[in-house]
Amino acid sequence: MDMFKGNFTQQESIPESAIEAAVRVMRSGRLHRYNVADGEQSETALLEQEFAAYMGVEYCLAVASGGYALTAALKATQCEPDEPVLTNGFTLSPVPGAITAAGGRVVLVEITDNLVIDLDDLEAKIKSSGARKLMLSHMRGHLADMNKLMAICDAHNVIVIEDCAHTMGAKWAGVKSGLHGHVACYSTQTYKHINSGEGGFIITNDADIAARATMLSGSYMLYGRHLSGPDESVFDQIRLDTPNCSGRMDNLRAAILRPQLEQLDTNVQRWNERYQAIEKELAGVRGLKLSSRPDAELYVGSSIQFLAEGFDEADTAAFLDRCLKRGVELKWFGGAEPVAYTSRHDSWHYVEPQSLPETDRILSVLFDMRIPLTFSVEDCKQIGEIIRECFEG
């Protein structure tokens, strides 16, 4: 029986140029982003400038984590206590966690079989809840029709905060993921598309949001040292009214990330080659439903998902066991209890219980698998073959 022997949590090594840059920072002792020598620009300020240029935006702020980015971005849009904030019924727990941490009240929206937010339910929930903010999760790298979504939100004056933790490098209709809404957040946690262990970005073209996020991150009165921040005059309006909720990125992590950003577009192609090798093996398997990828979507295939139509819990347990015995680690989002990063909306007990029958149906048969770049295309072909054989019994 064919066995796969790869490690689903092993990432590629940090590039040598990034290691050298990190060593230089450590030798300097100046790890704090505002601790610079005369005439020196910090690694963090340079990273922000480079990510802003890559995205084509005015403002970028590097922070301590993707989750912190979400909370700070929502706070920067002046979320009021108990204000309703919409988000996908299927997402990872840091998203409702960020809404709760910012003082908002989570309003969950149904998803479709393609794992994106249901636009009809979104419009209905906007009307029924009165929400004027949407924290949109591009969960597991799946993009909704962003043109239609923004038309709905703009018609109802809804501010869109994009969670792009899984879509750094992706595009919708040629527009980079994160450029549709009012503000976007990214993660640089180990399992994301560039790796500093933990870290994140906030990007926007709104000077007020950028200034508030910068003050929230703990800039003290050193915001003038940001190369991709608003003019200092913008801070005059908000600097004494915005609390310090320290969440800065440090120079060590920034140094690790700068060379990786140069490789991002190349790595998007590499991920998609691997994704497509698995997808090809699973296409046409009866009862196994892959997400449909619209022509407008340039995705980043760093993970793959499928639905096992007709499976019950016994079928699921047996399938997972068959795959694991052959070295393939799948995650299931339908479990009653959270396991690792998987959780259902009804396990977030800090969120008011809400009825999401379509989302529940989908999650009950939803499987997920990481695709690290340490796997070759041939590895991915083998993984696809194993999943197909295990699925067919």
Layout of helices and strands:
Layout: H1 16-28, H2 43-55, E1 59-63, H3 66-76, E2 84-88, H4 94-101, E3 105-109, H5 119-129, E4 133-137, H6 146-155, E5 159-163, E6 171-172, E7 175-176, E8 183-187, E9 200-204, H7 207-216, H8 232-236, H9 251-282, E10 288-290, E11 297-298, E12 303-308, H10 313-325, E13 331-332, H11 357-363, E14 366-370, H12 377-391
Parallel strand pairs: 2-3, 2-4, 4-5, 5-8
Antiparallel strand pairs: 1-9, 6-7, 6-11, 8-9, 10-12, 12-14, 13-14
Helix pairs in contact: 1-9, 2-9, 3-4, 3-7, 9-12
Fill in the keyword field for this structure:
393 residues; alpha/beta; Aspartate Aminotransferase, domain 2; Aspartate Aminotransferase, domain 1; 2 domains; 7-stranded mixed sheet; 14 strands
